[in-house]
Amino acid sequence: MIPAGVTVSVDGREVSVKGPKGELALTVASPIEVSVEEGQVLVTRPDDERASRSLHGLTRTLINNDIIGVTEGYTKGLEVVGTGYRVQQKGSSVEFALGFSHPVLIDPPAGITLTVEGNNKLTISGISKQAVGEAAANIRKIRKPEPYKGKGVRYAGEVVRRKAGKSGK
């Protein structure tokens, strides 16, 4: 079902979704057909071959993610853990102090907003699930959590497996 305030239009292989938060477009893979009928988006496949079945489910999920994105949006939280590790807002950008000899400045990609809560929490939000996840992964990549003390940038709620350190004789 398409929620109120959302319009889905199909133009050949292009599916565009417009909603209160913005507009997203998607190109559908070749054997899959998409149509809008009676307030529903119908995704159909020509046959039951393995590739068609997998693309059918993928296409349906991608269109659903776009609809959720333009109505509610997506958010992902990051936590900075470690002594002296912190994050602060600099305009629309964010500056990290992660134990390097220099501060790391991150500019948000198009369509993504970065918000800092306190000095160790960061929230990434936007309408595209893929873009939000990729931005979060790229920021986490700067300093991944290490297994001995757990220091680094981690997703909110991520459990870091800890290792025992050196043991004396």
UniProtKB/TrEMBL annotation:
Keyword vocabulary terms for this entry: Ribonucleoprotein, Ribosomal protein, RNA-binding, rRNA-binding
Record-annotated Large ribosomal subunit protein uL6 alpha-beta domain positions: 2-73, 81-155
Record-linked PROSITE patterns: RIBOSOMAL_L6_1
Keyword Ion transport part of the UniProt annotation: no
Superkingdom in the source lineage: Bacteria
UniProt cross-references to InterPro entries, sorted A to Z: Ribosomal_uL6-like, Ribosomal_uL6-like_a/b-dom_sf, Ribosomal_uL6_a/b-dom, Ribosomal_uL6_bac-type, Ribosomal_uL6_CS
CC per GO annotation: ribosome
Family note: Belongs to the universal ribosomal protein uL6 family.
PANTHER family: 60S/50S RIBOSOMAL PROTEIN L6/L9, LARGE RIBOSOMAL SUBUNIT PROTEIN UL6M
Function: This protein binds to the 23S rRNA, and is important in its secondary structure. It is located near the subunit interface in the base of the L7/L12 stalk, and near the tRNA binding site of the peptidyltransferase center.
Subunit note: Part of the 50S ribosomal subunit.
Protein name: Large ribosomal subunit protein uL6
